[in-house]
Design goal:
mainly alpha
Length: 166
């Protein structure tokens, strides 16, 4: 049974953490393969812009939903702890299509038309990048980087740091 791109988006965000990351790695592999190997920075930028244009067109046509951290919230594997604390159900829990396995979703993604697949790929990688950026910002605000920063300063004072060869 075919799933729409919007249903796949909800299913992805409803996955358990392990399956979410399994599917994310598969999508990243597909993105690398589509890039035909190493790209120059200009070629990489052009490819990213092309993927963004495909995703924006799919949103205009109503195929791809504008689901971001700001408009949708956390995926289901993050949301349960927050929901338990507040006693509420997360948006991911309330709207998720019955979670599938990463393998089942991967097969459904392979069946998509090329433009829809790349729109979904761009959305998923962008969503996860935003999630990662937010985690990094939270860690920095909570002082989690201080230990490593102190170690680096101490190593520099002892002369243990050196430039990376180019």
């Amino acid at each position: 049974m075919a799933m729409s791109v919007a249903e796949l988006q909800h299913a992805i965000l409803g996955l358990p953490k392990k399956d979410y990351f399994t599917l994310l790695h598969w999508f990243a592999d597909q993105d690398r393969e589509a890039g035909s190997g190493d790209l120059s920075p200009d070629a990489e930028l052009a490819r990213n812009e092309a993927q963004r244009a495909i995703a924006e067109d799919a949103m205009r046509r109503g195929i791809l939903l504008d689901l971001s951290l700001e408009t949708y919230g956390d995926p289901a594997w993050i949301a349960p702890a927050q929901a338990q604390a507040s006693g509420a159900r997360s948006k991911a829990q309330a709207t998720a299509v019955k979670p599938k396995t990463a393998r089942q979703l991967r097969e459904r993604c392979k069946a998509l038309p090329r433009d829809e697949f790349y729109a979904l790929l761009y959305w998923f990688l962008s969503y996860d990048n935003d999630l990662w950026d937010r985690q990094m910002e939270e860690d920095a605000a909570n002082g989690k980087w201080e230990v490593w920063a102190r170690d680096a300063r101490e190593s520099a004072e002892r002369g243990e740091l050196f430039d990376m060869p180019t």
